[in-house]
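Project channel, design review

CF: Before we commit to the Rheinheimera muenzenbergensis constructs, I'd like one complete example in the thread so the newer folks can see what an input/output pair looks like. Taking AhpA/YtjB family protein.
RD: sounds good, go ahead.
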Amino acid sequence: MQNDSPIPDTTSSTIKLLQISIAIAGIWLLLHSWVWTQQQGKLLFQQQSTQLTRETLVTLSHTAAYLIENDQLDGLEQLTQHIAQSPYLHDVVVYDANGMRMSWSQNSAPARILYSPAQAEPLMAMVQPIMQGAQLLGYIKLSLRLDASLSPVVMSWQQLMQRLLAMLVLAGIVGFLLRRGFSRFSRQSLRLRRTKP
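CF: and here is what came back for AhpA/YtjB family protein:
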């Protein structure tokens, strides 16, 4: 004889509570992973932007070295103004070996003003020595706009992360509907088995 006694209500309630707890923990873990991935992506983009700017700065220092050595200060001024037109840079300054300004862009200001906490726009100073062989000719300094240098890439990254979040929500809804459908199907088949003589 088959035992068709139902599962006690307390056991059923405990199982349901356990399932809800696991579902909430899973949702929290997914959201936490999503936020962490978003932050790591932004950090990675910032590191790449800084690295590319550093490599560009090394190349510019070679050009500046040639202009300084050949006493082409007009060319150095043109180079400074041309570099400063980049939307990713706030200002550019070329110093001589003693730290005196030789050429600078329009937005140039003392460091205590540019990099103070009161500054509305976050800037990062990058300095590269201008060398000719072993001789120090000066320094080139630029202020990288952290927000502007990241915005095109970060916007694409944000859109990708929003799509990923939408896919996670959709996967959760599909999983819920599938579970509900299978649950109804199994209950219906159990009822059919019980009604059979």
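RD: helpful, thanks. The CA atoms of residues 184 and 194 lie 15 Å apart.
CF: Helices lie at 9-69, 73-84, 111-114, 146-195.
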